[in-house]
Backbone:
């Protein structure tokens, strides 16, 4: 695959853990555990291929509405997996960055996140954004608050507000926008993910559930992306 056709930033809505498990007579928890294995697999493939930024949607601000048992299972698994894998990822050139609101996240989860996100001096081959307690509208609200604050303090004027300034106030500041958005499980919606950043992304939907989304499936998505003609509102020359 030619690297010109490789996305710089891939964002993934990892959906369908529950349905995958149900179809096999397993619990939703087992679906999430199988899903964790696929995230690990896809992180490695993306890093090895030279993708600079990978953003995975792990838990949305809306996911708190799930049954208490499921939420608490996801929190425990998250703490466990971060504790087991973060160091190894760092050693393999992956910089972990969390995007989302800290407010509302249990203390022990925040602690695991802070330990996982330690920045090393080594330059990272890939930035892994883990969207946790993430909601895109909330992110935009946070950006607007920060801009209002800068205005009130006289640090900026009305005319300084432009797309660049707004981008720089988002959780993904300093990063290129996603080129490719993948969503598994057959759903074709954004579910409050990266509303601002996805404005020119290519979308790839697959019926495969997240626990089935292995290296082969990921390569298929990249192949589909490589065949897209991105126009950015212009015309083909
Ligand atoms: C995605 O799988 C994982 C999270 C949202 C945490 P789901 O748990 O949404 O699985 P389905 O959509 O119910 O099958
Ligand atoms: C989106 O999946 C959130 C994550 C993958 C973390 P959901 O399963 O929560 O989305 P909806 O409810 O189908 O829109
Ligand atoms: Mg779902």
Residues:
């Amino acid at each position: 695959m030619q690297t010109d056709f490789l996305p710089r930033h891939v964002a993934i809505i990892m959906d369908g853990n529950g349905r995958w498990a149900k179809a096999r007579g397993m619990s939703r928890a087992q679906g999430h555990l199988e899903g964790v294995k696929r995230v690990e697999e896809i992180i490695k493939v993306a890093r090895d291929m030279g993708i600079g930024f990978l953003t995975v949607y792990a838990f949305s601000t809306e996911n708190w509405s799930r049954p208490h048992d499921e939420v608490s299972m996801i929190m425990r698994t998250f703490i466990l997996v971060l504790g087991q894998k973060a160091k190894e990822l760092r050693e393999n050139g992956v910089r972990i960055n969390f995007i989302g609101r800290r407010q509302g996240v249990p203390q022990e989860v925040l602690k695991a996140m802070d330990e996982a996100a330690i920045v090393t001096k080594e330059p990272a081959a890939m930035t892994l954004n883990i969207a946790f307690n993430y909601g895109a509208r909330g992110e935009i609200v946070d950006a607007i608050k920060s801009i209002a604050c800068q205005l009130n303090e006289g640090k900026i004027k009305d005319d300084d507000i432009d797309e660049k300034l707004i981008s720089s106030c988002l959780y993904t500041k300093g990063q290129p926008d996603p080129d490719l958005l993948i969503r598994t499980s057959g759903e074709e919606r954004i579910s409050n993910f990266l509303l601002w950043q996805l404005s020119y992304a290519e979308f790839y939907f697959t019926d495969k559930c997240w626990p089935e989304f292995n290296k082969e499936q990921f390569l298929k998505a990249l192949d589909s992306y490589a065949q897209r003609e991105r126009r950015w509102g212009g015309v083909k020359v």
